[in-house]
Amino acid sequence: MIAALNRVRTTTLALSTAAFIVLSAAALAQEAARPSLDVPYVPTPPEIVDRMLDMAAVKAGDYVIDLGCGDGRIAIAAAKRGARALGVDIDPARIQDANDNAKQAGMTGKVGFRQQNLFETEIEEASVITMYLLTSINLKLRPRLLDLKPGTRVVSHAFDLGEWRPDETAQIGFRHAYLWIVPAKADGRWKVQTANETFELALEQSFQQLSGQGYFGGKAVAAYGKLRGNDIEVKLVDGLTLRGRIEGDRIQATQDANWQASRIR
Ligand SMILES: C[S@@+](CC[C@H](N)C(=O)[O-])C[C@H]1O[C@@H](n2cnc3c(N)ncnc32)[C@H](O)[C@@H]1O
Hints:
Layout: H1 2-33, H2 46-55, E1 63-67, H3 73-80, E2 84-89, H4 92-104, E3 111-115, E4 128-131, H5 135-146, E5 153-157, E6 168-172, E7 175-181, E8 188-194, E9 198-206, E10 209-216, E11 219-228, E12 231-236, E13 241-247, E14 250-253, E15 259-263
This protein binds S-adenosylmethionine (SAM).
S-adenosylmethionine binds at residues 37-39, 41-44, 66, 68-70, 73-74, 88-91, 94, 117-119, 132, 157.
């Protein structure tokens, strides 16, 4: 009887040890398969989502990419405004949630979700980028954001882009949302022709801010200005203001003004 009990006890112990090993191995494998996150999952409250999309003026015809999409709420809200929308997240559990939420919202087929590292995501076709990441991650993305098509809108919840100052800031309670408009590239030398004169304009660009000089014969006149996408405004301190639109290597005047400029190579 005692020997039989000992046999049962030994078998039970062996079985539970084996089960423990199998379960531990499964848990370890699951842990190893979990992607490492650059930013933890924290959802953006709905009122901030709406404000971000308002700031970016999201509408039909836009292509919105949410980098680190979590449960998909920003991309789904963008799709509800008629935009094409894509959310990417490195965590498969978030992509599962996002697809479930899209289904629940009746937006399947109108919004896409992809399990992908945001640093490996192609963003060149986007007209709007949305983010709720961290400033350190935003700064890593900044060179790519600055290379997007001029006029592309970038909106971020809570975290900024360092020295690239936002074009617009909104405060909602204790939270902030930021908007940047990707500026065209205006630095370099331009030949400016107005109705009265032709002069050279040398511009230096720091994000959307411009500074430089206009050269009128031997006289240099300080200039400063700003960009909003392709729209450029330059003021020369002697009083001349130039407003126009950059199209590659040319600037065409806006507001019926009579001037134009071409880039000097
Ligand atoms: C703060 S949450 C923002 C979620 C959503 N965009 C929102 O505002 O509600 C950040 C998300 O980024 C994801 N994430 C972290 N590192 C990532 C990476 N390298 N590539 C893609 N997604 C990442 C996380 O899984 C998380 O869902």
